[in-house]
């Protein structure tokens, strides 16, 4: 039997998650399924026309998976690739053909209620939950024409997704914050020492920045790190710098010691 094609749509920044899902699907349906991932270095060969290869994947796939995050949902390629499979599925059903499932895999703080039209009309899953992953794999099994019990350990797969999400959202945001407060190599060493010497669950970082930088930090804490960090403004006003007076802000950052320790240990 020739391998059937699953199209996996993603943005470049999320290629590590695409590989996790690709490997899991190909391990589960070994010999029956090939997963099309444009960023894996193998699917699109050197010298090939990128768009033509993408088109062939969209035309020939028997199912499609879309990695949907707050970042990817804003990219035009996701909508383009979703629309192609959506139309193919509608034509197939009108002609009495098989269903071509298009499955959104929500991850990295994307929730069902935040999905825009028309993606919200599809039966998506939360990619960090084992039972949701199993549900998606059963849909793929049906599309492939397979039967029987699935072999994948979905708890292990969900944990791999969770680790990716931590690196992609939490660690990325921590890195942005430390950069904004000027944590260079010397200050990083001091921060490591502070974290290692603390017996508390939180590490308190007292700092000051320009107000515009502080606003970015506060937004990151509120939107990306609300479970791991909080802030408290201690003072604000005008400060003198190289370019004259500008608004400044003094504040305390309280960060989860374990998460910060894990970030610094990378």
Topology:
Layout: E1 4-9, H1 15-28, E2 33-36, H2 50-60, E3 63-68, H3 76-94, E4 102-106, E5 125-126, H4 130-144, H5 154-180, H6 185-197, E6 202-210, H7 211-224, E7 229-241, E8 244-256, H8 257-264
Parallel strand pairs: 1-2, 1-3, 3-4, 4-5
Antiparallel strand pairs: 6-8, 7-8
**Which structural class do the helices and strands define?**
alpha/beta
The third-level CATH topology of the largest domain is: Rossmann fold
CATH architecture classification name of the largest domain: 3-Layer(aba) Sandwich
Please write the string of helix (H) and strand (E) elements: EHEHEHEEHHHEHEEH
Quaternary organisation: single chain
Q: Distance between termini?
A: 44 Å
* Domain module tally: 2
- Major sheet size, sense and barrel closure: 5 strands, parallel
User: Roughly what fraction of the amino acids lie in strands?
Assistant: 15-25%
């Amino acid at each position: 039997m020739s391998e059937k094609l699953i199209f996996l749509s993603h943005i470049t920044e999320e290629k590590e998650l695409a590989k996790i899902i690709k490997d899991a699907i190909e391990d589960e349906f070994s010999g029956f399924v090939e997963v099309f991932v444009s960023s894996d270095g193998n699917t699109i060969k050197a010298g090939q026309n990128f768009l033509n290869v993408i088109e062939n994947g969209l035309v020939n796939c028997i199912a499609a998976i879309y990695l949907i995050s707050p970042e990817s949902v804003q990219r035009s390629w996701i909508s383009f690739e979703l629309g192609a499979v959506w139309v193919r599925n509608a034509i197939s059903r009108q002609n009495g053909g098989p269903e071509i499932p298009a499955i959104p895999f929500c991850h990295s703080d994307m929730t069902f209620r935040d999905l825009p039209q028309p993606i919200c009309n599809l039966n998506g899953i939360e990619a960090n939950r084992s039972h949701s992953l199993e549900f998606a794999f059963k849909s793929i099994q049906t599309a492939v024409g397979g039967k029987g019990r699935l072999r994948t350990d979905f708890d292990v797969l969900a944990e791999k997704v969770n680790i990716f999400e931590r690196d992609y959202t939490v660690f990325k945001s921590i890195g942005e914050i430390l950069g904004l407060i000027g944590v260079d190599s010397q200050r990083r060493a001091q921060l490591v020492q502070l974290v290692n010497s603390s017996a508390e669950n939180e590490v308190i970082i007292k700092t000051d920045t320009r107000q515009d930088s502080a606003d970015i930090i506060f937004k990151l804490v509120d939107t990306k790190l609300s479970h791991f960090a909080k802030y408290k403004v201690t003072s604000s006003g005008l400060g003198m710098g190289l370019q004259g007076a500008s608004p400044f802000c003094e504040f305390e950052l309280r960060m989860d010691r374990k998460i910060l320790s894990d970030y610094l240990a990378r």
